User: Fold these one by one.
Assistant:
Number 1:
Amino acid sequence: MYAAWLNSKEMDPRFKDDGNIYYHPELVIGDGAASKVYLGTASSDGREVAVKVFKDDKFSHEHFAKEVKQMKEHSALPGILQYLTSFVQETVDGNTKLDFTQRVIILELIEGSLTEAMNTWTSMTPCLVGRPPHLQVIRYVAGSLIKILSGLNPTSSLNDRRGLVHRDVKPDNIMVDRNGSIRLADFGISKILEKNKQDAYSSSPSPSHPFASPEAKGNPGLSPPVVGKVHRTSDLYSLGRVMQCMMDVNPTGEPMVEMRAMPTEWPKYHALAFEGLVTALLEQDPNVRAYVHRLTSVMNPHRIVASHPFFWSARTGLRFLVTLGNYEHPAPFGNLLVDAVKSAIAEVVNPGQTWFDKVDELEQPAPVLILVSVALPCTKQLVDISGVRKKPEPHATEDHFKTSPIGLLKFIRNKCLHMQHRDMSPQLRKMLEDESLFLFRFPSLVLRCWQALLEVLKPITENKQHAQLCDFFDRPFDLDSMRSGLGGL
């Protein structure tokens, strides 16, 4: 239909005063509560654009004004749908012949939405769902979204500057271009939170879709109606719902008759990190959501979520454990770290065992003694010198460490640092070159240690001796590395 329309002579510009924007009323590419979006072209340069035409009612007028304001202010940020222009035009209804005001926003055209992408996942060959590439897509989309939301809240702590809450994060508003890049669209019900404010009431209609946070929905059915609130973590709740629905392949977010189980083909350490992050994001109480109750004024929750182990590579997770193993003792963190390691060990060892029983084959084997006899020149007598060259086992784990939780971190640190030692056997070195080795043996170790240290994040960020450790709580992740191998976008 689009090609036929372009080839026809029925292309009268709909908006002559603003660059001659053409669109066909039947080429609808989006339909929302306040507007319809049409596929159009701009005669100035011939590019295809999205023509967002708003309805002529009070709600739509407010939606238009707010979206134009926020798009003009934030469109230059990475990951925000590009705003081109907007205008208000008096026109005549073709059916009623009555005058009415038409409000229009012209936006860059993006090929599709996350909803459309998710609808193809189960029909792909091979099927994407439940396999490692499925996990990679979720990590990439969630990582892109948290990076965008962090850009809307560009503060190092909760109270530095005002922030913007989108309030309508859902698969329909998450756009995906032909290169797989993510864009966030539709700022019509967004809300500015002023400096030092964590929440506020909103005069805009409350979102009612399943991706909206509990505080945002309010309760319009009560008398008097309860107006929805906006909290700095409201969009993070929506992010958690989007992640959950990507795992369930449920783009509408509506309750499913049967929820999908956690995919067994995902690496267990990443599956546990997924569960840990989604659980934190879906907290009903916004004051404890996304670890915000542990952060006080130390750091913005958006930046903490962006630093979550779910987004780490196996190499980063291993480097985190090695960094913890560098500490002489756990005193700077009290019992927090000890308890976290204990819990991770208890999940994988049998009663009566220690963590060392899970890794004992990684200990350097003792040197083999070769029986050697030599004849002394003066006596012609054979003398046994077996074991003369025997050396102590290199980097052997001391017995008292084998029963200590912190001994596990020391063991991991020593094995990684001494991997290239000349006494290391080639077989053992080859095993240790697998960066996910310890993550598979103790799947929750990284997550539990990272979450435990959130309790002492303030001294970690303020003390220079923890500079290396601080990096794991305020680290930008590499979206380009996540993008490699994506097949579902």
Note: Confidence is low (pLDDT under 50) at residues 387-392.
Number 2:
Amino acid sequence: MKKLVAFILTLLMLASVFGACGKSVTTAGNTETTSDGNEKSTSETTTPEYEDIYVDDDDRSDVPVIVEHEMLPEEKIPSSFSLIGTTHLPPIDNQGSLGTCASQSITYTQLTNAVSRYLHSKDPDIKWDPSSGDEKTIFAPKFTYNFSGSGTAWVYNIIKDHGALTLDRCKFASNNGYKFGDQSYNREKQTISWPTNSGDMEKALNYRINDYEQIWLKTVSDKLTTSDEGKDLLYKIKDAIVQGNVVVTGGFSSSWRYLSQSDIKRSGLDADNDMVAVWCNGTNGGHQVSIVGYDDDFTCIFDGVKMKGAFKVANSWGNWGDNGYFWVMYDAVNRVSAHEELNDKKKYENRTVALDQFCFIYWEKDIVAEMPQAYVTLKLSAKNREGFYVELSRTDSTDTAKAYIPYLFTYGDNFEGIHSHSFFKDGESTVTFGGTVDAKKAETGYMTFGYNTLTESACSFEDFLWGLNLTVINGPVTIEKISLYDGDGKLRAEIVPPEESKTVSMGAVSFVFDAGSDPKSNHDVGSYKFKNSASGLYISPDADSALRISSDSNPLNATELEVQFDLVNRNHVIHLGGKQYILDIRDKTIADGVDVKFNAYNKRRNTQTWKVVRLEDGSYNIRLAADTRYALGMVDGKPVLVSGVGIRDYGNWILEKAGNENMSVTVRCNSNGKLMAEGRIPTADKEESITVTAYSSSGEKVNSWKVQGEGELRALSYELTGLTAGTYCFTFTDSKGKEVSASYIALVK
């Protein structure tokens, strides 16, 4: 699978990676097990070789997300409690050969239980019964797994952004458990397909979470029952269960050690049903499960030692254990047993914690069972569902913008590890929405994204511009239709893009929906030669490397640089003229004297965007967006980072026109209700103009206007007349027919 390489900063994930008990998944240094206990080692993912591409590992730190929750008084916590047999807990599932344990425990069990309790609290008479096996009430592990992979935080983040779909609309192929495909490349299209039928992702948005809490046992010194902090955590787990919540946990399932038959008999337990984990002797086979009960009085005898207290745990291996359930003794979670006899290092070699983390969501406060304030549906046609990504933005009337990349695309690199050895033959590289590998024809899918993290309860839909940026790395991708909805499900705008711009093979296309705000969009963009004010030297190519840059006094030898404005993150990207390389720094350290050079797009680097700041004298500072204390300077003929007085002495630049320029234009209604094209043409060429073209919602050309800027700044303020009421898509092209700004969707009244 080709990696998605982008020019913007990707959100770093707080992720704990568990090997998922099914077929091997490529993660960094994990071992995974199947339900039959066979271990499989994972391998490291690799990066295409480009000069100076720096790919950092995801941040998988154990910093918990704190969720406020009113706990019960200790006296109201009973000695035992179980969620088994309640309406809200779904039947035990069987993940078969799939590595889906994180999605099984979180999506299938924990989320299903929480949503059911939340809905019943709102309507006690609701016909919603997961315990019956009704697939319309049970959330599908396929939805989160196929979008995220097997990381714990990855699954939760998918639910936060995209919600979850129920089993009746999103289900793996099943044959003695779920099948993914074997080494003979017996692919199951149903299993590997994405839920992109019309309405699927939209329905999923109705069931999301606000947040989750992840607590690692090492934060309490790996002492669950033998420290005050550990006892507090145990109390927290019990409280969550008593209040109706499933607690997700995990550990090393291949290293769990269970009571022997003789110890089961000696303990007076049911030899046919009771499966009791009493300690853990290593770190083989990462696996995730769900705590659904506890019993402080549960007693067993292990190697002559009487142990007391255990969790009741739901697994995802079908009828394994006690019809899918088993016990984990509290003491098994201690790295050092509370019983001295069980700490003999020779007899109990490599003892470690049986469960190493606990994840909480609370049905009464973390469930979001409604649509976001705004959401957008894209009807797309593509052969490669992983060859593009979407960015969402909203801009208010003060030109303050927020933006994010939905987590589905943040985890794009995970798909390579999941898919590459599981069902791809040598040379195969793409998969469609429907699960066809290396398809000869494009397939159509409907993808819906909510502006969840960008909305504010105090504001209305009309207070913002709603932005959408589609970046294609491995296309083509055709945009068949874009539909924008408010939180009530009302269609606010819908367009078919113009024929000439609806298909993108590589690069980005942007759309902005105007719902009534008044943004400003005068940004310095275009094609320039960069001349340092202090030295008089131009940025020019280096003799030894196309990606390193040097200096030259002759403008004929200067490098042509394309300054583009990213509507989503509100920063500039500076391209090497005619190339896909962009301005960056060497290595990762931001400091004075660090070389500035060109580099390939890398979404994990935060040093590839800049802020082009116009000064009063008409010159510019080129500030590093990641740390605006630093800017591009020219010191001793060498382009480097400078700061402080160094910016004053070495960091002022003159941007001289070079070839075609991009422009910055928007369409909006002014205070008098007139539809205006506003912006500027950042060029000294007074003959340069732009053409504003209006297309109907069905993509048909309606009208066009040729506009020239006025004054020194080549400012635009032009009334667009002759349009009847309706929804229009406006495009902006220069005198050579090149699109120079995001398409603007406006409702003309």
Note: The CA atoms of residues 136 and 168 lie 5 Å apart.
